[in-house]
UniProtKB/TrEMBL annotation:
Gene Ontology process terms (BP): long-chain fatty acid import into cell
Gene Ontology terms: cellular component: endoplasmic reticulum membrane; plasma membrane
Domain AMP-binding enzyme C-terminal residue range list: 489-565
Membrane-spanning ranges: 110-130
Membrane topology classification: Multi-pass membrane protein
Keyword presence, S-adenosyl-L-methionine: no
Protein name: long-chain-fatty-acid--CoA ligase
Lineage of the species this protein comes from: Eukaryota, Metazoa, Chordata, Craniata, Vertebrata
Catalytic activity: a long-chain fatty acid + ATP + CoA = a long-chain fatty acyl-CoA + AMP + diphosphate; a very long-chain fatty acid + ATP + CoA = a very long-chain fatty acyl-CoA + AMP + diphosphate; tetracosanoate + ATP + CoA = tetracosanoyl-CoA + AMP + diphosphate
UniProt family annotation: Belongs to the ATP-dependent AMP-binding enzyme family.
Length: 613
């Protein structure tokens, strides 16, 4: 008997030394399977995250739910305020179960009350990016199918700019103020203050299932204008489970300084409900107030994107850098060097780096703590959550296929396109009202004939130990300042300037910065010169700050493919170095309020970090 025990132990040790992460792999897959099993159970009973919220209210009504500036809102407060918001919509007579309401709001508690209130009457919200204006704002509103817009008081000017078009479509506009002097715009807060806070009947949402939409969150995907990704109630459960998979528990306090219209910020809110915990909400990220807030609210879990972590590491060191209770950071996009700097400076904070797309059906979590990795692959994970990294031609933007028409798996260490199988348990509902773009995200005949996979639009690679590393995005989108920039949209805006005939927009790497900075190769209109001040004013008026091209490159003509698509691969590789580019280059100078010639001296100041972009 002893011999068999020794043999068994020896086998286990051999397996462990060959794969030291096997126990972590098994434990993580068990967690994911539990989440999937729980969601399937919820689907059978139509148990939504709203039901979880109501249960949390009943279990501990006086527990703090939202900490905001100097205010504390308990779970009961949230229940009553969301009831009031729901009644404003009901009493208006403008909505019925299944309708969409667009929210154009900043980070503030009423964002949460309105969304919860909509769920209580069987409706849902489209979350509009509060940075967008004019044409982009109208586009995002229109593709949501909403007939009502609820906007923050400080965003009223942006609303009034598009108000004629909204009124022409018979859209009802509410402003979150006590009074509104603008004709044809209604006040929301005064009606909410007069509404009853009594509970609403569940019959108002009797047709809602976990396959029903809970929200629309906008994403650029990989091409074109922003698209409304459908976040079903089932998908919302998956999103809400990510922080708990990374280690968040029911005793934590989570800090949200990322925008709620973004998946990252909304994830924190949803996960707080899922765990029944307290969330500390900030209007917008502040590098100077970040740790003071964490100390003020006894925060134990923070959210991040790569840029926020870099900002925190770039501040001057302070004696109290480690004086906080934060034990877990959950997010994505942190560079390996920033990761090391962060834990070295701010203490042994566990980094829960994850990978996922807003509209995607698949996610990865770095549960092993491997610095720089976004997740880990294993036999168990592939078995229950089928996915693959396939060879991809970045110039033609198509997967490479073998003689039988199937995709070719990338080798270890080779960047490839990440794809994940679409199934009943891992669906891809697509984009609201955009069948063409939805179909572009579906790949057929990937591993075997007849299969169907989701195209993430991201290039990843995995190493000898099966750790995944994010490489780049493909297509017409790049990431800058934590936001996805749709190149087609930016190009459309730039070519509205008289002096610019044509534009090809892309992202270029800048040392010391996450993502890619916007650059536009432009062809000037015949007989006209670059009006650098006019271009600056135009992009400032029509594009959010993160989408404004930092660099311009004037070319006599723009290279295109046989189907007239701009060829950007060479331009991206050449970057913005005046030592290597003979074309005239310009740099966006905020102080001068124009684009100025990009000299070698300015280039050196940018690459050394002495000039901020």
């Amino acid at each position: 008997m002893l011999v068999w025990i020794v043999i068994a132990v020896g086998i286990l040790l051999a397996i462990f030394f060959r794969n030291p992460h096997i126990f972590q792999d098994v434990q993580f897959v068990r967690k994911k399977l539990k989440v999937r099993s729980r969601i399937l159970k919820y689907m059978q009973t139509n148990y939504t995250i709203l039901d979880r919220f109501v249960d949390a209210v009943n279990a501990d009504p006086h527990k703090p739910f939202v900490l905001f500036e100097e205010e504390t809102f308990t779970y009961r407060d949230a229940e009553e305020l969301s009831n009031k918001a729901a009644r404003v919509f009901l009493q208006s007579g403008l909505v019925k179960e299944g309708d969409t309401v667009a929210l154009f709001l900043r980070n503030e508690p009423v964002f949460l009350w309105v969304w919860l209130g909509l769920l209580k009457i069987g409706c849902f919200a489209a979350f509009l990016n509060f940075n967008i204006r004019s044409k982009s704002l109208l586009h995002c509103f229109n593709c949501s199918g909403a007939r009502i817009l609820v906007a923050a008081e400080e965003l009223q000017d942006a609303v009034e700019e598009v108000l004629p078009a909204l009124l022409e479509q018979q859209v009802t506009v509410f402003i979150l103020s006590d009074r509104c002097k603008t004709a044809d715009v209604r006040s929301f807060k005064d009606k909410m203050s007069q509404a009853s806070s009594e509970p609403l009947s569940k019959d108002l949402r009797s047709n809602v299932t976990l396959r029903s939409p809970a929200a629309y969150i906008y994403t650029s995907g990989t091409t074109g204008f922003p698209k409304a990704a459908v976040i079903s109630h089932a998908k919302l459960w998956q999103v809400a489970s990510f922080p708990s998979l990374a280690g968040m528990n029911s005793d934590d306090v989570i800090y949200i300084s990322l925008p709620l219209y973004h998946t990252s910020g909304f994830l924190g809110f949803a996960s707080a409900i899922e765990r029944g915990i307290t969330l500390a909400l900030r209007r917008q990220f502040s590098v100077s107030q970040f740790w003071d807030d964490c100390r003020k609210y006894d925060v134990t879990v923070i959210q991040y994107i790569g840029e926020t972590m870099r900002y925190l590491c770039n501040t001057h060191k302070k004696p109290n850098d480690r004086s906080h209770k934060v034990r877990l950071a959950v997010g994505n996009g942190i560079r390996a060097d920033v990761w090391r700097d962060f834990i070295s400076r701010f203490g042994n904070v566990q980094i829960g780096e994850f990978y996922g797309a807003t509209e995607g059906n698949f996610g990865l979590i770095n549960y092993s703590g491997k610095i720089g990795a976004v997740g880990r692959d294993s036999f168990f994970h592939r078995r229950y959550f089928p996915h693959a990294v396939i060879k991809f031609d970045v110039e033609t933007e198509t997967p490479l296929r073998d003689s039988s028409g199937l995709c070719i798996k990338a080798a270890k260490g080779e960047p490839g396109l990440l794809v994940s199988e679409i199934s009943l348990t891992a669906p891809f509902p697509g984009y609201k009202g955009d069948l063409q773009q939805s179909e572009k995200k579906r790949l057929h005949d990937v591993i075997r004939k007849g299969d169907l996979y989701f195209n993430t639009g991201d290039l990843l690679r995995f190493d000898e130990d099966n750790f995944y590393y994010f490489q780049d995005r493909v297509g017409d989108t790049f990431r800058w300042k934590g936001e996805n920039v749709a190149t087609t949209e930016v190009a459309d805006v730039i070519t509205m300037v008289d002096c610019i005939k044509e534009a090809s927009v892309y992202g270029v790497e800048v040392p010391g910065h996450e993502g890619r900075a916007g650059m536009a190769a432009i062809n000037l209109s015949k007989g006209l010169r670059l009006d650098s001040a006019a271009v600056f004013t135009h992009v400032e008026n029509f594009l959010p700050a993160y989408a404004r091209p930092r660099f311009l490159r004037i070319q006599s003509s723009l290279d295109v493919t046989g189907t007239f698509k701009h060829m950007k691969v060479k331009l991206v590789k050449e970057g913005f170095n005046p030592n290597q580019i003979s074309d005239p280059l310009y740099f966006l100078d905020v102080k001068e309020k124009r684009y100025v010639p990009l000299t070698v001296d300015i280039f050196n100041l940018i690459t050394s970090g002495q000039v901020k972009i």
